[in-house]
Amino acid sequence: MDIPKEPNFSLLSSQDFAPEKYVRDISQNYVGGLELQNIKKKIQALADETSNNLKKNVYQNYVQFIETAKEISHLESEMYQLSHLLSEQKGLLTALSTSSILEDNRAHFDVRNEKLDEQELEEENKQKLATILDKVENCKEVVEAPDRFLLFEGDLLEIDATENTAIKFVHVYLFNDSLMLTNRNSNSRGLMRYAFESLYELSSLAVVNVRDLGNIKHAFKLLIFPDTRVFQCSSNASKKEWLDKIDQAKKTRLVQEQQKRESSLEKISPARSISVDLSINSQPEEIFTHPDWFLDIPDELDVCIAQRQFEDAVNHINKSKTYINKHPEHVGAIQKKIDQKQNTLVEMLMKELEVNPEKSLQGGLRATRTAVRLLNQLGRSTQSCDLFLKLCSSMLKIQCKRVKREGSTSTYVRHLSSVVFTNMCHMSEEFLRAFPDSCANCASAYVVWASGELSLFTTHFAKQVFMPQTSLSTITECVVLVRSQCERLCTYGVDFRYQLDGALRAPLSKALNDARDKFVDSIKLRAIDEKWIPVNLNTRSGLARCLQEYAVLGLKLDTYVTGDVWLQLTSSNLAFTKSFLILLDDCLKLKTTELLHSIDETLTKCFEAQLRYNEQGLKNEDQKQFILKNFEFLLVVLVQLTQTKYKEATGYECDNLNKLVNDYLSLLKARSTKTKYSSEFL
């Protein structure tokens, strides 16, 4: 017997395949571990290939299953619509076939009998409606509607259309023209057992049978655009009764509407004898008929709304309104339907503008232009403005969260203020584009919105900037940045600089007071080590750098130079001068009318502390003339530069500083005409 070189893999797919026998035969035919390893690899490769093929087939079948399910779902919907239309047409044809154009004696007899029973039926209907009024809260307008009577009522269990779980028990009333849903009133202890929930017109709903599946039995669907509600009956007989009653009510309602439409189009001809007598004095009554496009407007609006063709829907509404304004006396029923469709369209457009966490804002405000424009055309500019501004707030909040707290305080404030005010400018542009001829309400709503967003920003800004360890120079830099960004809004007709300054007034006043206290403390520390000797700058280059540094600040110290490296000012006065001029620049950058008092007080207190320290040095008789020269520098040179800068910023000089200078000028009178200095410092 010849041993095959390759195993027969076709045996794996045979019906009588035995794995143990197959392995035993291979073990007998192949000798050695290497051959068995090769066979194992081939079988493993075959298994992998088979697994991949199975996965591909499963995926293809699954995709095919999904597509088939979608097609079946669409086909089911279309078949339902077709069945619904056919049943309505059948009912209409049946009703028309039973009616007769010419009246006969039997019709007269039936009418006579109906008139006899009319009062009894009316009384019975009144009693039923009165009972409903006693049982159901907030249904007075529903019950008191003219020509409305009760057909059927009963309890139903509402089922969640998605989860197939029970929601609540409802009591349903079927009228000749509508369907009313009520909830059980657990809080009421009187006769009112139910509370009104909703009312649906029969012409706006459709009933669909639901097949029994699992725990869901004896159920049917109510299709009410754009929602679907599922109700479960207690038994199959109850379900059949509900379906029959609703279907019969819809057919009857459809026939009545058709008869009303035909009666409005029929020409009412007077009796022959009367027409002969009045043919001279009277003219035939004209019958007004609407064009077909106007009668089809409600259906066209349904199609446009379902297909999200909102602009076409608005065009249809505007066209119909123009026609209604020309013929207001013949459009009552159709106008009511058009108003209902318009309300549905408005709700869908407003949902386009609602802030939703699951909704992507990647399109920005440009994506809202169409919805806002259409709402404005429909006369809902107030609602569209409110939703537009809420969307702006949401987008601004998201943009601010993306700014990371990195680097220095001024860097973070620069980035944050740029993001906030750039977005506010862009939103202002979009607002002016969306509401070019906005009413006063929209304009005021925008101002209130912008003011609120600025308040949120200033609150966050104050928490980040006004901290004890932040220097006044850093605070000044940040405030100047925010003020310059806020000025950009002036281009769009809104100026919030006063609000910004008002929000920062209290923290800035506190910051100025803290800076003043720190400045005075630094003066006291320098006074401890003061020796009342001129400053030695060691080298000519050092002296030149010092003179250049103070020249940048606006001071010329050439007259105080003696020798090659000496400056006839104390080190503490030089340090004070530099710090004071920096403080002055910061204060003037922060200048507002409300902060001027705090600024004047800060500058005066700091300057007074330095003068008081120099006054104490006059007790040293040996260096009195040198100290008086420093006094002269502070009271004349430094004060003159300070008042010049102050006047350039405010338009007038600082009165508190002038008063302080006048008080200390008396000390200069004791100075001799020629100042003498000790030679040990030259």
TrEMBL record:
The keyword Isomerase does not apply. One of its GO terms (biological process) is protein transport. The keyword Transport applies. SUPFAM superfamilies: Cullin repeat-like, PH domain-like. Keywords: Exocytosis, Protein transport, Transport. Residues 149-251 form the PH domain. One of its GO terms (cellular component) is growth cone. It comes from the Eukaryota. Pfam families: Exo84_C, SOS1_NGEF_PH, VPS51_Exo84_N. InterPro entries: Cullin_repeat-like_dom_sf, Exo84, Exo84_C, Exo84_C_1, Exo84_C_2, PH-like_dom_sf, PH_domain, SOS1_NGEF_PH. It is found in: Cell projection, Growth cone; Cytoplasm, Perinuclear region. Belongs to the EXO84 family. Component of the exocyst complex involved in the docking of exocytic vesicles with fusion sites on the plasma membrane. This is Exocyst complex component 8. The lineage of its organism: Eukaryota, Metazoa, Ecdysozoa, Arthropoda, Hexapoda.
